[in-house]
Amino acid sequence: MNLRDKLRGLLVRLYARRVEGHLDHDQVPRHIGVIMDGNRRWAKASGSSTVHGHRAGAEKIEEFLGWCSETDVKVVTLWLLSTDNFDRPQEELVPLLGIIEDVVRTLAADGRWRVHHVGARDLLPEPMQRALKEAEETTSGVGGILVNVAIGYGGRQEIADAVRSMLLDAHDKGVAMDDLAESVDIEMIGRHLYTSDQPDPELVIRTSGEQRLSGFMLWQTAHSEYYFCDVFWPAFRKVDFLRALRDYAARHRRFGG
What value does the mean pLDDT of the chain take? Predict the structure, then answer.
C-alpha cells in the first residue's frame, strides 16, 4: 500500500468516526434489508473471476453484521440468491450455491446471530436445505440480531406462497371459501409471509448504483425508505453504512412515522 492509499484510508476512518459520533441512535431502523449487488462487476473491475467476486461479497457479510450490532438494529435481511439467479450458467451457479451454503454455516457457527431462512426452500439443493435447517435449529436460542437469509427468494413468489399457505390453512380448519373471502385482510396475508411476526424493514440498502428493488420484499417495503449506494457490495465500507443510517435518520425526522 502506497502513502496516498494510506492517507486516503486514514481520512475515510476519521470521517466515519465523525459521522458515527453524530448518529442519533434513537433514529436507527429496527429492520434493515440489503440487496447485495455488484459482486460480478467488482470482480470484473479488479480483474478477478466471478467466483472470486462472490467470495469477496460473502466475506463482507459478517463485517456488515458487526456494524449493525454496534447500533440498535434488531433484524437484517440479506438477499443472497433470487429465484431469477437459477437461470445463471451452471459454471457460476454451482460455485455460488456452495459459497452461500458456507455463509449460512459460518453465520450459525458465529454464535451472535439468529438465522432464519426466507425463500422457497423446495427450490434449493438438498445440502442447502439441510444447512438452513441446521442453522435455524442451532441458533434458535441466540439473542442477537435476527438474520434473514433470503435464498431462493422472489417477492412475487413470497406473496403467492403466502396466499397458498392461507388457503391451505383455511382448508385444514374447515373454513368455507365464502367465509374466507369475507375475512381476508392485510393482516391475515401478512401472517403467512416468510417474515411473519417480524417488523417490516424501515430501510432498504442497495449497492452497486442500481436504483430498483428487483422484487425484494414487495409486500413488506410498502413504507420503507430506500438508500442506493454506488459502491459494489464487496467494497462496501462502514462509512457507507453510516451514511445510509444518517440519511435514513434525516428523512425519518422530516416525515415522521
Answer: 91
Distance between CA 43 and CA 27 in Å, rounded?
35
What percent of the chain lies above the pLDDT cut of 90?
85
Which of 24, 37, 110, 240 does the annotation list as catalytic? Answer: 37
Can you give the pLDDT at residue 253?
46
3-state DSSP call for residue 228?
Answer: strand
Range with the poorest average pLDDT among 2-16, 78-92, 234-248: 2-16
37 labelled ligand-binding:
yes
Q: Catalytic: 247?
A: no
Task: Based on the residue annotation, tell me whether 148 is a catalytic residue of this protein.
Answer: no
C-alpha cell at 204: 432498504
Cβ within 8 Å of residue 41, ≥6 positions away: 53, 208, 232
CA 97, 98, 102: angle at the middle one, nearest 5? Answer: 115
Contact 192, 169 (CB under 8 A): yes
Q: Is 42 annotated as a binding residue?
A: yes
Query: Which domains does the chain show, CATH number per domain?
Result: 27-154+200-255 (3.40.1180.10)
The CA distance from 81 to 99, in Å, is 11
Question: What pLDDT digit, counting tens, does each position of 119-128 carry?
Answer: 999 999 999 9
In DSSP terms, which residues pair with 81 in a beta bridge? 151
Q: Express each pLDDT in 122-146 by its tens digit.
A: 999 999 999 999 999 999 999 999 9
| 54 annotated as a binding-site residue | yes
Range list of β-strands (E), the chain: 31-35, 75-82, 114-118, 146-153, 203-206, 225-228
Assess whether pLDDT exceeds 70 at residue 21. Answer: no
